[in-house]
């Protein structure tokens, strides 16, 4: 991957894949980092305008955290608006999302940016895939919390049982033939 220096205006960075020789490949992506309470429709419109000004077919709006994405952004994370493909993502999801999109980006390079316009079913599948991956990630977070809770409880009970065993006296055995009185005494009594 090739990441430009911070841009003075029209987005934050340009991002592109490289070929084996290190040359930058098309299509380039205009990355606009956001760290605010919520992404707005104005942010999306500005990204589209900036991408058009730079003749870049793909804009990426990268929120710091998923809570900054509106529900409409989470439901439609990959869509074309006004001739520009927009990826709505977070900084932590960006690498994963680009891995998912890489085959499409390669096809866009060879067949042109309107490749997905001609293949709306494929664009819809990408949209569903990104939403599904987000759901999988949520389930993995839940599983991680459950595993962490189980590990914590296991440790807690291990310590509790160890302390009970350490504090518990050794039960005296009654002499042969005498019934057990049920009294437990400390060793050495």
| Fraction of helical residues | 40-55%
Q: How many structural domains are formed by the residues? A: 1
Sheet of most strands: 6 strands, mixed
Q: Provide the low-confidence segments as ranges.
A: none
Strand content: 15-25%
- The count of helical stretches stands at 5
Query: What is the mean pLDDT?
Result: 83
Give a quick set of tags describing it.
189 residues; 47% helix; alpha/beta; six-stranded mixed sheet; 5 helices
Molecular structure report:
The protein is of the alpha/beta class and 189 residues long. The protein starts with a strand and ends in a 22-residue tail after the last helix. Helices cover 47% and strands 15% of the residues. It has one domain (2-139). The protein has a six-stranded mixed sheet with strand order 1-2-3-4-6-5.
């Amino acid at each position: 991957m090739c990441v430009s220096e911070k841009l003075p205006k029209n987005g934050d960075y340009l991002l592109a894949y490289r070929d084996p020789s290190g040359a930058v490949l098309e299509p380039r992506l205009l990355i606009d980092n956001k760290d605010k309470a919520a992404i707005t429709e104005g942010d999306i419109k500005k990204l589209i305008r900036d991408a058009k000004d730079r003749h870049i077919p793909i804009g990426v709006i990268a929120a710091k955290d998923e809570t900054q994405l509106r529900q409409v952004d989470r439901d439609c994370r990959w869509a074309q608006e006004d001739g520009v493909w927009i990826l709505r993502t977070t900084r932590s999801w960006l690498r994963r999302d680009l891995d998912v999109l890489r085959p499409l980006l390669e096809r866009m390079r060879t067949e042109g940016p309107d490749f997905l316009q001609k293949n709306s079913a494929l664009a819809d599948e990408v949209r569903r895939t990104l939403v599904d991956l987000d759901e999988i990630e949520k389930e993995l977070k839940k599983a991680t919390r459950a595993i962490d809770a189980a590990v914590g409880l296991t440790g807690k009970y291990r310590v509790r049982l160890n302390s009970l065993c350490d504090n518990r006296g050794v039960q005296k055995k009654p002499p042969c033939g005498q019934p057990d009185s049920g009294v437990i005494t400390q060793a050495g009594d």
